[in-house]
Amino acid sequence: MPQSEVGFHSVFSGSPGTGKTTFARLLGKILHALGLLENGHTVEVDKAGLVGEYLGQTPMKVEAAFDEADGGVLYIDEAYSLTHDTEDLYGREAVDGIVKQMEDRRGRVVVVAARYPQDMRRFIHSNPGLKSRFNRSICFEDYDSAELLSIQKQILRSNGFEASEGFLLRSELLWQKLYRDRLTYDGNARMVRTALEIALENQAARLVRKPDKARHELCEMLPEDLDGVEAQLREDHDA
What we know:
This protein is α/β, with parallel strands linked by helices. It has helices at 20-33, 58-69, 89-104, 117-124, 128-133, 145-158, 165-180, 189-208, 229-238, and strands at residues 10-14, 42-45, 73-76, 110-115, 136-140, 162-163, 220-221. The protein folds into 2 domains: 10-140, 3-Layer(aba) Sandwich (Rossmann fold); 145-238, Helicase, Ruva Protein, domain 3. The strands form 2 sheets. The chain has a 5-stranded parallel β-sheet with strand order 2-3-4-1-5. A two-stranded parallel ribbon has the order 6-7. Helix 3 (89-104) links the parallel strand 3 and strand 4. The relative contact order is 0.13.
């Protein structure tokens, strides 16, 4: 039977830390496993990786990015930055080059553009070629407090740490408070990673002060390891 081409170019919209980049890396592997992409690797670029220093250089940089991504996924982070300034000729030149390469390499490169939802709508409508080629859109919702706690548990477990019941209870209260105060939306999973970095520094300082340490204590997280975490996260958010 004749084969019909199906486009997989996608727009990923959502706040930072919601998993857009992680899923873009998985998408290449999935499409490769299905026999839809030759290699399945993911190449990540931003505006600096696509725009040249002078007019005429940009198409070469765009083509080079597509060459590297051939057989896989080209992930354009902060894609809206290419079109947010209507006077930016370099950004417009990059978009024109992207549209051309998407057509020339149909079936060989899957392009994923990512940014905040409102910015991505403007990006797609900035060029008729983009609107017709990006036929899939996935919105990555912000994580709630229970999901943030689950992410924290997973990160600890994957790194060989054990969380005590007191640590988990205090963590649950921490994420509930930050989520209630709408402070987690700008960081999501990234905020969890920052919180754990502070907690692990606290744990290290605690263990240094203890002369005799059992092996299991080196991997155990206690409630006091969360001291100062909330204050630091709030300060980082307000900075």
